[in-house]
Amino acid sequence: MSLPEYRNSYDLDLAEQKDFVGSLTEIIAQAISQKAEKVPFGKPFIVGKELSYIAQAVSNGVLSGDGEFTRRCHEWLETNLVCKRALLTHSCTAALEMAALLTDIQAGDEVLMPSFTFVSTASAFVLRGAIPVFVDIRPDTLNINEELIERAITSRTKAIVAVHYAGQPCNMRVLKDICQKHELYLIEDAAQAILAKNDGQALGTIGDLGCLSFHETKNVISGEGGALLINNEKLIERAEIIWQKGTNRKAFFRGEVDKYTWVDIGSSFLPSELTAAFLYAQLEHAEHINAHRRELYLSYYSSLKPLAEKGYLSLPATINGKPENAHIFYVTCRTETERKALIDFLAGLNIAAVFHYVPLHDSPAGKRYSRVSGGLDVTNDISKRLLRLPLFSQMTSEMVERVCHAINSFFKA
Hints:
alpha/beta, 8-stranded mixed β-sheet, 3-stranded antiparallel β-sheet, 13 strands, dTDP-4-amino-4,6-dideoxygalactose transaminase, DegT/StrS_aminotransferase, WecE-like, PyrdxlP-dep_Trfase, pyridoxal phosphate
């Protein structure tokens, strides 16, 4: 809307003055409204029958876990991801902790992983007394650099954790070969990778174990939640025992024993049926959720490509030119100072953009419990310049356009 054209405001008659003031008031109101409308970094959402399924779970009379909706989620994961066994957990952290138990991690064992990851990747193994050994990442996918792994292996190395950053796959073929050669476990931290694939195989189903997250910041959500995917058949029976607090309760329900009892270590890893009910409704729409996110991702990419071509920023690398599940869209600024300035600029326009991990090797606990293999030059550099842009399931193309317009304005200024 534009203001009516008048000679001068002091020449207006009463009717014209009212028209002028009314137009000006509307323009100001629109500007304030646009300024106040926040583009959040992320936002939890309902996509289908979440509330209906929660009510159904209550009606079923089982809320403590391992009920009908837990079983439905297990079947969905096993069928759609093609894994031998899936077990819901109350978080991806819990799934990683189960992985540490299943691989019999002991005090003094070493576990190779990137430093550019969430704390749970390391803490799950530190709880067992293990030493995380940080290996640098690739500058393109930001995943662990497979070319640096073998030089980090020692006689104490027990496992490698492949973290699929932003849902983009690690080089799993090489990692599997290394693990087979050195008789190591391969664990996938696929927290960000629901339905993403590597050579046609779902991430989380390639290593011995895979760990998924359904935290509210992920593509498919249940508030808090996760899953352990067991791909090594030798680990399935013990996984069920650990999952059930160290008891053989699952075997009892299948009629394999006449009573269940405490048979191994374990803990309370099950989510409630309310969580499983919410999650199952999301899983029913998982493909659609990812498809929408890919559209947003590609819109970001095409809109910001001219800035990248001029050298103002860098865009994420993709495998075969496409984002696997579009979990994250990030840009890499030229300097840490420029990133800070861009975050502040976007915040002033009510657009939330954030940096990502402080590398674990640079954290107080990381310095205490872990060690570094070689240099971490790429990790140190990328962590200072990477900026995550808003991307969530209820985001619209208009929101993406607004964010991109703001970023273009920043660099033009």
